[in-house]
């Protein structure tokens, strides 16, 4: 009985190994065409494939394509994550800059939240200065009658010449 089990297990192992070995052998001798675009994408060179392209070589190129694709997708996901972080930082920075400018504008001009402003506080002084300069005579200014007399004198001198 023990001898029968040993023989049976040995036959099963030989059968399995021969099937697996045959599969590899059959794949190695089965010719295959590998498209140039697929080969370029996988970055598998002709030296790595050999002179005679087989089904095993095509399977290896397929594995390399899958590996490269997954690697590229992971890189793209990382780049997208980095871009999201940089985007959030940039938006945050520019929003702070905009808010600072709006706050300065609110201080200078005023706004709905700030009824007082620097311009509003200085406006009466500016209007008063303009109005005062119209009504207050300076030291060397002419009165209207003096101005009229000067204009008449200038016209008379011009006619004489």
Outline of the structure:
80% of the residues lie in helices and 0% in strands. It is built from 6 helices and no strands.
General description of the model:
With 161 residues, the protein is an all-alpha fold. It has three domains: 1-30; 32-99; 117-161, no CATH class. It is 80% helix and 0% strand. The protein is built from six helices and no strands. It has helices spanning 2-29, 36-42, 46-49, 55-108, 118-135, 144-160.
| Count of folded domains | 3
- How far is the first residue's CA from the last residue's CA? 153 Å
Helix-and-strand structural type: mainly alpha
Number of helices: 6
Helix content: over 70%
- Average the pLDDT over all residues and give the rounded result: 81
Shape type: rod-shaped
- Low-confidence parts: none
Range of strand content: under 5%
Secondary-structure element series: HHHHHH
What is the makeup of the main sheet? none
What is the gyration radius calculated from CA atoms? Answer: 48 Å
Number of strands: 0
């Amino acid at each position: 009985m023990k001898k029968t089990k040993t023989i049976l297990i040995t036959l099963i192992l030989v059968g399995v190994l021969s099937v697996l070995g045959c599969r590899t052998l059959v794949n190695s001798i089965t010719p295959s065409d590998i498209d140039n675009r697929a080969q370029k994408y996988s970055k598998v060179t002709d030296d790595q494939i050999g002179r005679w392209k087989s089904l095993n070589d095509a399977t290896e190129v397929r594995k390399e394509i899958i590996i490269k694709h997954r690697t590229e997708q992971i890189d793209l996901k990382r780049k997208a994550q980095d871009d999201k972080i940089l985007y959030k930082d940039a938006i945050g920075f520019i929003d702070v800059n905009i808010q600072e400018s709006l706050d300065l504008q609110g201080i200078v001009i005023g706004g709905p939240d700030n009824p007082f402003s620097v311009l509003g506080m200085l406006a009466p002084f500016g209007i008063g200065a303009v109005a005062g300069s119209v009504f207050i005579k300076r030291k060397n200014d002419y009165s209207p009658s003096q101005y009229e007399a000067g204009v008449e004198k200038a016209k008379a001198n011009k006619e004489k010449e």
